[in-house]
Amino acid sequence: RPYCVVVALLLLAEVSRLGEGASNPGFVVRITRKGLEYARQYGMATLKKELSTINVPDLSGSFEVGWMGSVSYEFKSLRIRSFQIRNSDLSLLPGRGVRASLSNNYVSISGNWKVKKAFIGKKRGTFDLSVDGVSISIYLNLGEDGTGRPTASVAHCSNSVGHVSIHVSGNLSWILNLFHRRIENKLKDILKQEIWEIVRTSTSSHLEPYLRTLPVTLMIDQVAGIDYSLVGAPQVTSQGLDTPFKGEFFGRSQRSPVPFDAPPIRLPQQHDRMAYFAVSQYVFNTASRVYHQAGHMNFTIRNEDSPLDFPIHLHTKSLGAVIPQLARLYPNTELELEMSPESAPFLMFTPGNVTCMPVMNIQAFALLPNSSNRKPLFQLRARTDISATISVSSGRVHGSLTPGSKLKLELKHSNIGFFNVQLLESIFNYYASYIIYPSLNAKFEKGFPLPLPRDTYLNSLELQVHKPKVLVSALIGFLF
Ligand SMILES: *[C@@H]1O[C@H](CO)[C@@H](O)[C@H](O)[C@H]1NC(C)=O
Ligand SMILES: *[C@@H]1O[C@H](CO)[C@@H](O)[C@H](O)[C@H]1NC(C)=O
Ligand SMILES: *[C@@H]1O[C@H](CO)[C@@H](O)[C@H](O)[C@H]1NC(C)=O
Ligand SMILES: *[C@@H]1O[C@H](CO)[C@@H](O)[C@H](O)[C@H]1NC(C)=O
Fold this sequence. Notes:
Blueprint: E1 4-12, E2 27-32, H1 33-52, E3 59-65, E4 69-84, E5 87-93, E6 97-117, E7 121-144, E8 150-160, E9 164-169, H2 173-178, H3 180-211, E10 217-219, E11 224-227, E12 235-236, E13 240-245, E14 248-251, E15 275-280, H4 281-293, E16 299-302, H5 316-319, H6 324-329, E17 334-341, E18 347-350, E19 353-356, E20 359-367, E21 374-383, E22 386-393, E23 396-403, E24 408-414, H7 422-445, E25 448-449, E26 457-466, E27 471-479
Parallel strand pairs: 1-15
Antiparallel strand pairs: 1-27, 2-13, 2-15, 3-4, 4-6, 5-6, 6-7, 7-8, 7-9, 10-11, 11-14, 12-13, 16-17, 17-20, 18-19, 19-22, 20-21, 21-24, 22-23, 23-25, 26-27
Helix pairs in contact: 1-3
């Protein structure tokens, strides 16, 4: 049965620097009261199913009937005919945990009875039992197991059983009716014990395994993985349940400590969705660091990369028009460009926009016809504004880059003397638009997955932009 949950994706850049430093999460999932209400319905349906399977053990004993002496009895084949949950509630106990309570429930049980008495022999019949006012309170503790996985355990469970009434039919049923109080009390105790057992096993066999399907690390591609271990126990607040994930990209070949801290994440006071996924800049910046280190932001552009219809080629015949000394020094020579960012480019979340201002170094070489060596010609520094679009689909966060401003060039070093770099700007802009952006976007297109437990699928998306808080919020529905 598909369940639809509405969640939001928030991109947060918290400016406050007063954090706990390295232990701040890069990623927080908040399940709001609305989300918990949804979880309650799902949980109650599961619990109800489990409670209906309570295996009530056979019950036997004996009692003294004044003039008749001792009578032994047996109640067998006890079967829960129905377990009705009339009221259920899930409440948040800030700083402590979650309480689930089921009250005013009704159980009906049927079975067979048998009594044995020396001179009357064995008699048997059937009985129906109804139990009113069954109430169960379960206190759940949510934690983290030390390896970054979530845990759930029942801290305390109390239950009470209200009124039990038993109707026995058959010959000699009047004997049992004399003792119905004692039998009812015995059954009450058995039920309480069984309910507690079901609650405990449901938590350990349904809830905890489900939570443990949350991924701790996910591999993105050959280069990077993402660490989704919990950096702390899920926090219960009056708003909901906040689960802090590390949200850190790491290099698959070699993992080194990230030289910057995750900023503190403060979630906005929003509660109209069932869940909010808050992603801080940290996630994107650790990704940038890993791909930068792996050389995935270094580009070599050769003449064969420029389309035939492009009027200017990476050739001294072509560029000589812009840099006259080039044609003189290296007549009829192909050129090659190496582009690399000066440092890992970081994304910045500003109200309504995600931007990046990379500084690229561009080294130009002449490919000498008579040698395998390249002759370094000049080095440029290029600055630009890039605007990034973040989106979510199928449980993955995707990004795409679009040029925000034209490249601004500056001559850093030249082996061929001074020339006017402004004249090169349109050529380099062309290479950026037709070679670099498409290549980066092809990488970002795959995106990275959100930490979702088993059988959770995202199925719709809506983006909202919030101010003045730096926050992009996406509306997602998912099924589980
Ligand atoms: C009660 O006992 C009588 C005689 O032993 C028998 O005929 C009758 O069927 C019994 N009734 C039930 C409900 O067992
Ligand atoms: C990327 O290019 C820069 C500049 O040429 C170089 O220093 C760096 O080592 C390159 N990175 C990788 C991983 O190849
Ligand atoms: C977002 O960036 C674009 C391009 O730089 C700019 O035109 C726009 O005004 C920015 N929007 C906001 C809300 O700052
Ligand atoms: C290669 O050609 C360049 C320019 O044509 C010239 O200056 C250089 O001396 C040549 N080098 C060798 C090793 O022939």
